[in-house]
């Protein structure tokens, strides 16, 4: 069978179930109303057209690289448009440009029309499924989708209705059988890659977005899973959605499901149109698809410069001459093939048809699409995130449980090492060492939860970019959910060591010790949260967090007394910035004040605890232990605020001057580079002639 003859068969797979259709009609993002019922007659589809998109990126040295060369195209409701091309051809860049997610070092010129309005999409207007499935591993599929529904559907929607939407989404994505299976993490075997990808898509279609972008939805999947995921996308498109997906190397079955193909190479448009047209276009341009070759493989092989190296190796090994190759692609270099195809497309009827369609779509007025992000209130988001995070912390062994076990072992160790410490002279330094270890090393160990925290941040980043909730809701959720665990750690650890060592007697002293430990561990957690937002790589983050704490520990007052610290840098400001100094001084005061130390030897004086505090450990007596505790709590707030500001700052700051320079350089590049101008002629936007002019075939 000639596999290249395979047509876009548009496999008939039904659209939405009547139930989900009816339910989704009530979702604001899906319909355009404000939570009300969308009128049946209202056309809420998304028509997207783009014209002459020219994207450049500037690097740190100010050099400008052209990423997209004046690309045009369109995407219509009911269709899947596949952006195809070899690695580095600009697929993700085009997808990001259309979705309004370009990196900050890039500049864009050209026009994007959404429903007849010139508009650059902002976050949340369209759903965007990223390549990596960042999901919470401990939750089941149903829980994951249900939490997402609570985060995004309106508060006033009855719970039964939300549940029905969740169930219909599960059915829609073919996840019924795995609905109660956990997603999976390092200690939990969970879903397959294809199922995870479908969960990621399910989360984005909950609010019934009309426009869906997917970055390589089939990457890393075997061909059966890839087919099933694409078929699911086809179902979504059939329901009137506009689906645009970048795709790397589709199988012939997957390729047949695409309605439109946008083929790129080196940021240039090679072909735009339907799959069948691509076959004709390549044949007319002199590069017909050989029999028994998957068409998409052929197109990608034609425009992939890496094949030049493959070819050179084969030439050397087989000692063949150019004319001995049957496939014309093997006789010319890829750069030449790309140049021929670009030229052929620009002067072909396909380009004219595309231009006419771009013109038509850009003129077709439709509704202004609302954000598909969240319609839930801030309180609902914060409450849902708290519950979700709490569930995850309870189930993830590495988040707190493993740490708690280590804390128990360590505190039994401390207890036996300093068992019933007493009040003789020697106990003074032993008490100080014991408290320093508890306050220093035990809190230091809190960085052990960093990997779990980085996973949380990844999920947060994905959901935030898709407009599901804001930074404040995330901080509240993460803080509140962690409190019971931190309190448990402080109570168990403090309970073991305090009672075995027999530090200052009295329940109030014991509770101060526990509170101090709790605040210190919470401060480390908050510090690590800020570190995670700045250094999201978990190994680098752990090293950074450990380094910061190492410095704070050095200046806490145990390894070097406060008055002996070198004034510049170590004392001011470092010892005041770290929370360890306040924690240690609070613990010292809690223990030493009110105790008398002596060796019960007649004639030897007893030493009051106040003397130890002031003259031995140089504690600032003007600041009470409660003030010290209060300062640690303020630091927790400060770290959380810092995290908030880091996220907000990263989001809002646009590189000012460098961006302006990059833009002017890009314009200059576009105006002055005549070679570029001819190679990437803008497509004409006049209506197509009645008879299509097809480019003459290339004769090698
Ligand atoms: N923000 C950026 N700054 C600098 N260069 C960039 C930027 N974004 C993309 N590029 C470069 O543009 C080219 C195209 O990248 P893009 O990610 O769009 O390719 P792709 O076709 O999606 O590749 P892949 O299939 O490997 O993901 C690459 O060379 C990439 O390094």
From TrEMBL:
Transmembrane segments annotated in the record for this chain: 400-421, 433-454, 474-498, 510-532, 538-561, 626-647
Membrane-related topology note: Multi-pass membrane protein
Keywords: ATP-binding, Membrane, Nucleotide-binding, Phosphoprotein, Transmembrane, Transmembrane helix, Transport
Entry's Gene Ontology BP terms: response to salt stress; transmembrane transport
Limits of the ABC transporter domain: 48-291
Matches recorded under SMART domains: AAA
A GO molecular function held by the record: ABC-type transporter activity
Gene Ontology CC, one term: plasma membrane
Main localisation: membrane
InterPro entries on file: AAA+_ATPase, ABC2_TM, ABC_transporter-like_ATP-bd, ABC_transporter-like_CS, ABCG_dom, P-loop_NTPase, Plant_ABCG
Record localization: Membrane
Family under the similarity heading: Belongs to the ABC transporter superfamily. ABCG family. Eye pigment precursor importer (TC 3.A.1.204) subfamily.
Protein name: ATP-binding cassette transporter
Organism name: Selaginella moellendorffii
